[in-house]
Amino acid sequence: MSGQMVRDLVCNTLVALGIDVVDLGLSTTPTVEVAVKMERADGGIILTASHNPKEWNALKLLNNEGEFISAELGSKVLDKAANDNFFFG
User: Fold this and answer.
1) How far apart are CA 4 and CA 85, in angstroms?
2) 29 burial level (CB within 10 Å; 0-12, 13-18, 19+)
3) What is the C-alpha separation between 73 and 55, in angstroms, rounded?
4) What is the mean pLDDT of the chain?
5) CA distance 64 to 36
6) Known active-site residue 70
7) Nearest to 45 by CA among 57, 88, 54
8) pLDDT tens per residue, range 37-53
9) First to last CA, the chain
10) What does pTM read for this prediction?
C-alpha cells in the first residue's frame, strides 16, 4: 500500500546525500544479502511489509557483509538520524 512511497523516500534521501543506490526492485531478503557482497556495497536496506499489517513497512538494515546490523550499530544509526544535521546537495 505504501511500499513504493517509502522506497522512493529511502532511495531519494540516499541519493540526495551523495550515496550511490542500486535498486534491486522486488527481491527476496537472501537476494539482497548476496547482492550487497557482489556489488561491494557499504550496506543494504530491505523494505518489507511481509509480516506487518498492510499499512506498515519495515526497513531491514544490512552491513557490508550482507548481514543484519547489530543492535549496537542499529542504536548508533537511530541516534545519528535523530541528532545529526544533514546536508542534501
Assistant:
1) 26
2) middle
3) 27
4) 91
5) 6
6) no
7) 57
8) 999 999 999 998 777 77
9) 30
10) 0.85
